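User: Hi! I'm working on a homework problem where we have to compare a predicted structure to a textbook description. Could you give me the structure for the chain below?
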Amino acid sequence: MMQEQLEAIVQPFVDELTKTKGAEHPVVFEQPQQLAHGDFATSIALKLARILKKNPFEIATELKEAVETQNAPLISTIEAVKPGFLNVFVDWDEVMEADGEDLGFEDEKQEKVLIEHTSINPNKSAHIGHLRNACIGDTLARLLKATGKHVEVHNYIDDLGNQLADTLVGLFHTEAKESEAKRFGDYCWDVYAQLNEQYDQKTVATDKRDEILHKLEEGNNSTSWLGYAVADKIATEHVEELGQFGISYDLLVWERNILNEGFWKMAVERLQETEAFLKKEDGPQAGCWVMRTNDAKANHTEEEHQADKVLVRSNGVLTYTAKDIAYHMWKFGLLDADFSYAYKADGVWTTVAEGVSQPFGRGDQVINVIDYRQEYPQQVVKQALHAAGYEESAERLHHVSYGVVSLSKSTAQMLGLETEEGKNVYAMSGRKGIGIKIKELMAHMEQAVRKQSPDAEEETVKTLALAAIRYNMLRYNTTSDITFDLEEATQVTGNTGIYLEYTFARANSILKKAEEAGIHSTEARFAGAEEVERALLKHLAGWNQTLSKAVQDLEPNLLCTFAYELASAYNRFYAKCPVLKASDEEKKRRLALTELVIDKLGEVLTILGLPLQKKI
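Assistant: Happy to help. Predicted structure tokens:
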């Protein structure tokens, strides 16, 4: 990266100044906000002032003079600026002639990363909260693939849980008579909400859920086979629906197969060798097998968040966390067992009762994209790995936590939800049937795009709608709750997916016109670049650092910020610097800049999973 090259030039001189001080003082270059302060700058002189007991400006001047003796081709000008900054202006012609930059991501042994995301309960249609999970997970997979990792994407389907059991109770004991569903998942959405209302009214007993849970875990009975059929149908709808956003999976993992393959039996053998796993003989958890987490902050009044986490209930039913522990032991290749697999379609495999062998699992690193409300169970899984002696695997297990999606007041009103004075954010609730299904979201988004772009073709409308939705799910910090607003997400200007798509199309339109006019960027020179052109070059030069930071933090919104700022810089450039109506030298330079923007913006959009729309 360019920063590393500059740091390598300056570091020896810093080492010479501090050689008697007995410590390392690394040089760090950053990109200043203002062009007048250089393309890159370092404050190392300010940090050395106290150590060397000298004026920082004098140190910066000394470093400047030393660097100038090297005649480094990368540096056009270097300045020492009070109170003690070292500002560097790079020679962009030298940069462009360099044969690319080494990102340094490739390892001798290609690391295998398992990413689990989406993991929607297969009991009803997916909503926009599920979509945020899938967009984050898919973008992380694209990001890590782009930086040389071997990535395997899992969608873990809980077909033995309470939610599926409730939907089965609803299908057996209720009728969603007013449902207008055209898909099975939509009908189950209505049934699930109606059943929970009946639970609250006590017209249907929750004991029926427990009966079905036992049947599902027992397997090979009428209830379990119907449950599998319901889960398979709804999960298929989920995968197809998310596929339109470019979201894909390598493997669908079914919870029932974790039990059928005996993973929990193997996992419990490891856990029983530890003091952390024990059976409670008295108290509210009497008869339960628990994992002692030593969580002093745990709330002992809530079953789902106790210092001693229940893994096996007193009635013998495994909790979700117990099966998750076994699943993660398999993920890291710690169990002497494997699933059987069957091929579905479009590169997707699934775990099955009888199938073939495939090289899934055995990850070097595991990433789980799960909302922040599941932070405690994720901690229990990590602690179970530690307790069983798998410390290295535990350290390589990462939970990417994300905030929930709520609705803005205007969007809630648009969807016909009841709103109230003074309340601006509206939470979704599957139990009450409140939320935006993905299918509904697409329909509303397409309508909003048509309103803003009435002449757009239907294919373009769909493309812009997909870009708007996906980008809106990614542009916030993952840990932030987001309030989804339809009108805001479809704006053509501002930090939106549609703005990026229009910018990409504009740049491609300029390139096409240049090609038709026989204008080429060959032998373009950047020495005379105007300020807006230099600003564009400077921003492009920050891509590798952004990419590295996004990988380190597992944070897609850093890429969104880079893409938005690049699009904004290009549009400022376009407004001030004509490309096709300029001097020959300017045409070459500005066309070269346009090509660079197309290449880099296209790369970022691809990682973000947005369509590359060359014409709008």
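For your comparison, note the following. The first helix runs from residue 2 to 17. DSSP finds 23 helices and 16 strands in the chain. Good luck with the assignment!
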